[in-house]
């Protein structure tokens, strides 16, 4: 089967579509051929993939070929079975006939013979040539077509269709395409099954000695090619993937030695996208293929299918992985391959993948993450080709033109040298080239950066090239390093042939080595065993590469330094641009730095500065200071050449801000000297500059400086200087930011000239009186010559022995606090317990100075509504120590702030003038209390409550407000305002209850007195003024029945008084009826003003107890008729004895009866009628009658009436019945209002025949 490889490849190249055979029985094909060809390709088709799932394909290519064509008739049976994919997928039989007898005798037997082959998929197209005007011809053709359908079509499958040449064609072409697709689908399924069976048989033999990969390959690729022709690209790609896995498994089998390939001319250029690079017959080897060509062949077809699937991203992804893995294979066979074959192949492979995938990729058609990943892969391919290209350039002697940057050093120093079996030698005719190369090497000098910065250059080689090349020479050993380096010990460190010292032994070895000047060309051809010099190595590599590289563009890029830089920039820019459009933007910025290095070397400082700025921003943001120290001097030099003074100064500051270990001290001093020189000499206009990374500042460790409003002060600030030497500042300004209000602007604090030493410095600034609030450090600004600097960096104090400690502080610590007046003094009410209302009481105001003198303070007092100050009495002011000693157990003790009592107890009487009080001098620095006589007035009488409903205290009714405004300070510029709330209350709360009803009709009324103040109350007398309907029993003077006076009531306790009353009519002297009862209480109070309620101020000034005046308290007491004396009765009448059922009308009846005459009792009526209302749960009952109305009822005793209402129960079970209410009659006048029985039993509705369903 392997002999058919050439034919197989020829068939693949010539056949890229399916074939549909045409059996022209009636010579119709020339007539209909053009119309059939116009339908190609098939725009939409449904085929089955390998797993027999339907797949819709578009633009399926096909070709109609007559069965008599030589392309179909010249095939041998073995070829037909081997290359079955090119056989017809359907057979179209073209027939026409207008005579039924002719069909039976001639056409039918012939058609039977044609369609008897079961392996072919066929169908018949009956062509009707009858003209529309010839009815007989149309009828005859129709009869013949009907007979054809009967003979060749079945119920399972319709195999006939009719094509009317002169009729409409739309329906015919749809039917034709449908039948063709059915045939193609069936044929494709049958052939896929055939190939799978054959492939399975061969797969089972792959570990046997008879295994032949070529046979397996032809079957496998035939199946893949058949899928490709059918536009089933996914299945074709899967076959090639399986073929690759099987091949790798075959290649790695132990015991079989195979040639790798890649030694022919042109193999250095990758053929990853060119499957026809070499014929298969040229790469076959025994029973398999050479790995070098065949793996590229497989990948080329995979890429071809991926491009047809519009997946260039996957081509790039697979391509990058393939290049990496195949490069390892090239490494393992490198000793058999041409010199640097691996590097050249990788470069061409990356370039081909980049070109093909980028041309096929269309932006915006994939998801954003896929798009970014695609550009990342493009960048990786560019970077890989760039590194390999730099390796070739270094080998041919362009190493001095490659920037020794960290990225290039990291890439090249980890890339091994080529490992040929023998390192190439210098051709005999290349002596002039060697001398020219040596001159260039000797002319090369080390590069010195700006400011005289000298650094050891980073290596671009994994090991010394001189040693590696000579070690691989066949006639030399690797042990004598001194001989290898031509007697120059300095070259053992990788410094090259331009070492600074010359060994004396070099004179002794003149016969076998050249002198350092390399001036004698005669020695070049002297001895073949002489170690090669570095110039000879470069020339030998260049000639060897010329033999290896077949790509003219690649060789041109290595022909000169200019062409090398052109290609180098192309690869670097390509990688950087793609990285910028992907996730790896930092890689793009780093490569921008490599582009900047080339621009810098050629004097394009503008472009170099733009790229260097991006690189420096990246390194600074990531904190890579060592990398920043390598690039920043170049940016500084570019800015100097461009006369960018602001950028140049900023770069000098950034150089000074880097870690001290990165530069020598003299280099850092040079940075500072350049900064000072520009600031004082060359700058014409002021230049602003941010030095936050070099100068940091913070407050002095410890609590913030605390000032009062209007007070001056000095603020000390710690400043860390990162300059290596002393720096003189012409001026320094510090901005303080207010934290209490964002709208308040910054306040600047200025200072004169300051000298900053390296490390820690302390600067003292004078503060003008700032506004009250808390301040933090804002911005430190200053000026050095024409340079205006600013710093935003805050630091916090470090250890005492650390002068260069700097760290950012978050959040900023307050550095200054300026207190408002309210923070210097506190005013509060002395007591929180209630005072007596309608009596003159002492109200205490506590004054607490907080570390601030109140000398000469003035207090303004303004009372709110319902409160007044009694000006006839003096105001007292006493120290808290005196008060606390008098009442040590008082919760509100008024000790001084530090808790120590004052030795001199002070008490002074003050007067109120225009609402103001002047403080005495002794109260300027100690806590004190001001006692003000006030009077809270209330015109309404308090109302008592029933013992059943306990009283609810209402704090709002007795609350009064007093406004305080304190002016203090040296010029009374400090103010403090406070509104204090004072609570006033009646001495008692009165509640009453009837405790007994005697047989003679008298009632015992108990009046309960509850104390509402924090003082002892003594009741001396009490009498009761009754309302209409009640009279006093007994003597009738309204006094209690028992003489229990005096009665003492302790704070928050209760006391009771019993009165004897009875029902009756009472009219006062004026003949008016009383609606309310009033209880009068004469009492006395014993309390202290430091605790709460106390005797009125007038009593304190009256003197002895003999002249004491008792207080009187009056409270309204509402009495109601007792519930044991009703005037009306309401009764629920029994329900009917029959069972109550759902939906049945039920009369509900209530009886209302007068129990006594009502001449003296007025009941709400409407024209002599009483209002009634029936209430029921609507979920349980429906009221059918009138549920609300008026009934006539006489006011005479014994009158009665029955109220009846129809109701309908709605639910079954025990439910509560409706109940009757009298809305206009008070409940106390009704004897009872029962809701009827507790529960009423409601039965379910009776069964009805209309709801029965016969079984």
From TrEMBL:
Keywords: Golgi apparatus, Transport
Name of protein: Trafficking protein particle complex II-specific subunit 130 homolog
GO annotation, cellular component aspect: cytosol; TRAPPII protein complex
Source organism of this protein record: Linum tenue
Biased composition (Low complexity): 493-506
Lineage: Eukaryota, Viridiplantae, Streptophyta, Embryophyta, Tracheophyta
Residue ranges annotated for the TRAPPC10/Trs130 N-terminal domain, each copy included: 16-316
InterPro entries: TPC11 (IPR021773), TRAPPC10/Trs130 (IPR045126), TRAPPC10/Trs130_C (IPR022233), TRAPPC10/Trs130_N (IPR056913)
Major localization class: Golgi
